[in-house]
Write a structure and sequence with these properties.
45% of the residues lie in helices and 17% in strands. The structure holds zinc ion.
Length: 285
Amino acid sequence: MADRARFGPAGVPPTFKWIKAGLEDIPALLREEGLDAFEYEAIYWGGKPQIKRENAEKFGLRARENDVWLSMHGSYFVNLCGDTKVVEASKKRLIACATAAQWMNAHVLVFHPGFYGRKPHEIALRNCVGALKDLVSSMKTLGINSVKLGPETMGKSAQLGSLDEIISICRQVDQTQLVIDWSHLHARDLGRFRTVEDFRKVVLKVEDELGTEAVQNMHCHFTKIEFTEAGERRHHVLEEARYGPDFGLLARVITEFKLKPVIICESPLLDLDAMSMRDTLKSLV
Ligand SMILES: [Zn+2]
């Protein structure tokens, strides 16, 4: 668990790409910006790790040396609510991600649980929980013990991933870590975060259902988001006043409850907006 609130980008920031930084250089560059978390994007991976073990380990070492907290975003090609074939392929992809996550010493493997399809929501959830229990037992057999599976709250009404569903998964499955994507919840519930109280309610609910430790150590995603009746449409930079949610409101709740979340910035201005959120929180402490 993180020792303090930490901030970092989801993937390699554009400015790092311009200077042709290699994976190994990223932790030091983040540190120069005063950032201390990074989410490695394994979002297009198939059934095998797409990084060499040696490179993953070296990257993990650089992250430790520069005090950068690592997480991994798993493959988008996952649906744990689908038919058997789809679920088996999804498990294989998540195992590939978890294997590499362990190599680099990432704490959490974030993933999107899946789609309801034509299934009633309870059946889809039951399928997903069953698949995750299998997955965790395979991970244990393979010796992947230090990586937690992080089911994420999702932004579209067709996706499994309401706050209640994610909490239910975390209650039922071992080796899981709640991942709150605040922007997804905002989009899914058509703009639910307007006041400090709206954020406080979520924090209190998580504490009530999963305990103090879970709420203290939330893994979060944050950005401004545009939505339609079907939920999430597009991510926006923090400066765009016409979109929500407002990080300043969450920052007040973080201070009030003395939380130590890891906050991964998914705005198009990855590292710049991560720094701006860090500064917003700092200004309150
Ligand atoms: Zn995600």
